Every structure is written in C-alpha cells, then in structure tokens.
Fold:
Amino acid sequence: MVILFDPYNVLNSLLAKQSRYDAEIVDYLKSNEINYFDMNLVHVEDYKSFNLSVEDYYKRYFIGHYNPSGNHFFAYSIKPKIVEWLNPKPITYRKQDKEMTNFKGYLEKLENE
Structure:
C-alpha cells in the first residue's frame, strides 16, 4: 500500500484549489490499480466541514508534524483501508454470526511445520 501525504505542498495546493505537483504519481497509481491511500484528500474533505482559515485548520492537527489529534485523525482515516487490505482480516473485523476465537491463517505456517 502506498500512502500519499504532503501537508505543506500537496495539501496546501488542494486547499487553495490548485493542481497538485504529484498528479502524475496519482495517475500512475490509479492506472496501474496500485493500492494507495491519499491522506491529502481526506484532509480536503475534513476542511470543508469547518469555517476556518487554512492556518487555523492546520493548528487543529499539526505542530510541524501531527499533534495527538492529527495522529488520531490519521489512524481512524486509514483504518478502513488497512482492514480492507488485510487477508485474513483480524477477528474483530470479520463478519460472523457467532463469536469465536480463530487463528486460522495466522498460525498456518506453524501448523505445517
């Protein structure tokens, strides 16, 4: 999985409704069906829900890098993409009618030795 996030170049450009310098990379990932996650787009959508300046929006999540709120926002934003990617899925994310503990897939290598 490729993670795209450049808060000081790409995100600023997108918030200003300008083109992104990495558009060729994004096009390549899409056209080659490479699994990727674009945190820049997540922030653009999040920004729309606030009535803040870009500077004040950045203060919510950044202190030069992510602050604790930014880390939390990133983790919960990427979580569905990671769960979708994993195979087998963690037990808590499997759709099952009954509760059970099943380590099949995780311990197969040990069972086959």
Remarks:
- The chain has one domain: 2-111.
